[in-house]
Design brief:
Number of strands of chain B: 14
Number of helices of chain B: 9
Largest sheet of chain A: 10 strands, antiparallel
Order of helices and strands of chain A: HHHEEEEEEEEEE
Oligomer: heterodimer
Number of strands of chain A: 10
Structural class of chain A: alpha+beta
Radius of gyration of chain A: 59 Å
Number of helices of chain A: 3
Shape of chain A: rod-shaped
Number of domains of chain B: 3
Strand content of chain B: 25-35%
Order of helices and strands of chain B: HHEEEEHHEEEEEEEEEEHHHHH
Radius of gyration of chain B: 33 Å
Shape of chain B: elongated
CATH architecture of the largest domain in chain B: Beta Barrel
Distance between the termini of chain B: 73 Å
Helix content of chain A: 10-25%
Helix content of chain B: 25-40%
Strand order of the largest sheet of chain B: 1-3-4-8-7-6
Largest interface: A-B, 78 and 107 residues
Largest sheet of chain B: 6 strands, antiparallel, barrel
Structural class of chain B: alpha+beta
Distance between the termini of chain A: 126 Å
Chain lengths: 244, 407
């Protein structure tokens, strides 16, 4: 007998020769592999169908469920809370002169104690309309245009008239101003009494003036004075230091 | 993710046909309520502390004394990326005359006014702007700027985070700044990228005034887009909702809670109820220049869906979504509050559907195996039938179990 290695099936020629021998034929029929039973196939098809329906239904229900998106595990992507702002280290800068002093001023009242006669004690003189400019760099200008100080002594009219300007340096705290030096004076004072002009004296530079006055500055007014009998009141003008 | 979403949508649509009637709805009282509820968690309170001096470059006068000026301003911001990115108006953080320097100038002018050194305030401001600079401890050194972003977190606390400026466009060029804070998983809002038509209802949200509510509850002003404007080639919206300075940088949101614009400075001379907002496209452009994406996190989607479920009266689903929101964004106090309210209204959490999915997959496996077996069996059957002898008429010979031959 010749058999194929794959199927064990009989070759057709052999089958033909076997037809004339019933016994052999019966033996060979009983050797034929059984066909898979039809009920088993049907059952498997039923199982498959059922499984498909179940899988579809369950997957549909699961996927269509009203379920939130899932997010990252806690702490997976950094802090939810974290560092707070740090406090700033204190920084300072050299303070400039008091802001209120900066600007241009005009005197509305001045009282000076001036020694007019050499043989008389100092006497009070009053005047107005002197102009000042205090700049933030510590320099200043005093302008006298027929600046007149007047006094009355024993019925005599005394008068001092100033013309010219003075450049000076200054510094100040919140309540004291120091006129440090007169750096450039182009100012003359003329002294008059009942007899007329007595003398004309120039105002000289003075690198070590260091005159210290107390002051109060509030808005557009400033008051200044010292223990030598000097005091004055000033109002701010728009010449310098005013914005707008 | 997209495929899953599509499947979900398809399945949901299918199930909707079979679903019973929805429970009684608890719609928001107005579209603005929903928009406010969506937007509220992403609103942050911004304070900027400026410290420095002002120097008049012409006179050399330095204002600020020894200690300098400390100027504190407040603005509003909106989180546009959960990883700590906050959008606001640049005039809140910019160092120029329309930002920090301007605030310093104002401080100096205030002091000058007390000294009687200010004539016409407007002219004074202009003069100061023209010839003064704001600077730090020395000439031309930068002013000190400290930005703090605050938001409410659980237990009634305020979380203050230091912020840095990622990028900005100057106030006169678009008025947008993006800040970064060292926080993650923040509630964030979506940017509306298309032009909002004139007439679109909007909410202007922010913290008006200089004193913020201790609980940082922002103000929501409703109005609408009044006009499209272009300033310095940048798109702006004119809107009718009332907004004040503290609301600068706050979002202008549409009724879907999307950021349509950022509240900017009002036009000079206009009344308070006419304001300008930078279009959100300027924000997007700024972000893309830095490789940052305006996006929302899963917790934002969950929160939004939770709100939808909540207002639809589906409190069970709302509980699930708000639960997930809080899990994803632990400091999301609004989600926690809505979660509590959903619980109060009878909402109960439901279990995960993951087991159901696994069983479904198991069934699918069984089906595959069964089908494979059926195919194998049928093929075997065909093979066997093909080698059987057949009668002349073509019918297969019946298989007969023959008795065994006695030996």
């Amino acid at each position: 007998m010749v058999q194929t290695s794959r199927t064990n099936r009989k070759l057709p020629a052999e089958r033909v020769s076997a037809r004339g021998r019933p016994v052999d034929k019966i033996e060979r029929v009983s050797d034929t592999p059984r066909l898979p039973p039809t009920p088993a196939i049907v059952a498997l098809i039923a199982v498959a169908a059922g499984a498909v329906i179940a899988a579809t239904t369950l997957t549909t229900v699961a996927l269509s469920a009203d379920e939130p998106d899932r997010c990252c595990p806690a702490g997976a992507d950094g802090p939810v809370t974290g560092p707070s702002p740090s406090t700033r280290a204190a920084e300072t800068r050299a303070a400039g002169p008091p802001m209120c002093l900066i600007g241009s001023w005009r005197s509305v009242e001045e009282i000076h104690s001036i020694k007019f006669y050499t043989d008389q004690p100092p006497m009070q003189f009053a005047g107005t309309e002197r102009r000042y400019e205090f700049r933030p760099d510590g320099t200043g200008t005093e302008i006298n245009e027929n600046y007149t100080l007047s006094s009355n002594w024993r019925g005599r009219q005394l008068k001092i008239v100033g013309n010219g300007s003075v450049q000076f340096t200054w510094k100040a705290t919140d309540n004291q101003i120091t006129y440090v030096a007169v750096t450039n004076a182009e100012l003359n004072f003329q002294y008059y009494d009942h007899r007329g002009l007595l003398n004309t004296l120039p105002y000289a530079n003075n690198p070590a003036l260091n005159e210290i006055d107390d002051y109060i500055c509030q808005g557009t007014q400033m008051a200044e004075g010292n223990s030598n009998g000097y005091h004055s009141t000033w109002v701010r003008t728009t010449g310098f230091g005013v914005y707008g | 993710m997209r495929i899953r979403a599509r499947i979900k949508t398809l399945c949901a649509a299918t199930l909707l046909l079979l679903a019973p009637a929805a429970p009684a709805a608890a719609d928001p009282s107005s579209p603005e309520e929903l928009a406010a509820a969506v937007a509220r968690p992403a609103i942050v309170y911004i304070t900027v502390n400026w410290h420095g001096w002002v120097r008049d470059t012409k006179s050399g006068e330095v204002f600020g004394g020894a200690a300098g000026y400390d100027v504190k301003i407040s603005c509003t911001g909106v989180v546009i990326n959960p990883d700590g990115y906050v959008a606001t108006a640049s005039h809140c953080v910019h160092t120029g005359p329309r930002g920090g320097s301007g605030y310093m100038f104002d401080a100096a002018l205030g002091e000058l006014a007390k000294s009687g050194r200010v004539g016409d305030p407007a002219k004074a401001k202009q003069l100061m702007t023209d010839r003064a600079v704001a600077e730090g401890t020395g000439p031309d050194r930068p002013v000190d700027r400290t930005i703090t972003v605050e938001r409410m977190v659980p237990d009634g606390k305020r979380d203050a985070a230091p912020a840095t400026v990622v990028d900005l466009v100057a106030p006169e060029d678009g008025d947008v700044a993006v800040l970064k804070i060292p926080r993650n998983r923040l509630p964030s809002l979506d940017l509306r990228m298309d032009d909002a038509p004139v007439g679109t209802p909007v909410l202007a949200i922010g913290y008006p005034g200089s004193t913020a509510d201790p609980k940082l509850e922002p103000s929501n002003k409703n109005g609408q887009i009044s006009a499209h404007r272009t300033l310095q080639e940048k798109p702006f919206y004119e809107f009718s909702a009332a907004a004040t300075h503290g609301m600068s940088g706050g979002p202008l949101v549409d009724m879907q809670g999307r950021v349509t614009g950022l509240i900017s400075q009002g036009a000079p001379g206009e009344t308070q109820s006419f304001n300008f907002a930078t279009a959100s496209s300027t924000v997007a452009t700024l972000l893309s220049g830095k490789g940052i994406e305006a996006k929302q996190g899963p917790h934002d989607h969950n929160y939004r869906t939770g709100l939808d479920r909540y207002f639809a009266g589906d409190y069970n689903a709302a509980v699930n979504y708000f639960d997930a929101t809080v899990a994803g964004s632990p400091t999301h106090i609004q989600a926690a509050e809505y979660l509590r309210q959903a619980h109060d209204k009878g909402g109960k959490p439901s279990g995960s559907t993951a087991p159901l999915l696994y069983v479904g997959l198991g069934c699918a496996l069984i089906a595959v195996i069964a089908i494979a077996l059926v195919v194998l069996m049928i093929r075997r059957r065909r093979r066997l039938l093909s080698v059987m002898d057949t009668p002349p008429y073509g019918f297969p010979m019946p298989i007969v179990d023959a008795p065994t031959q006695p030996s």
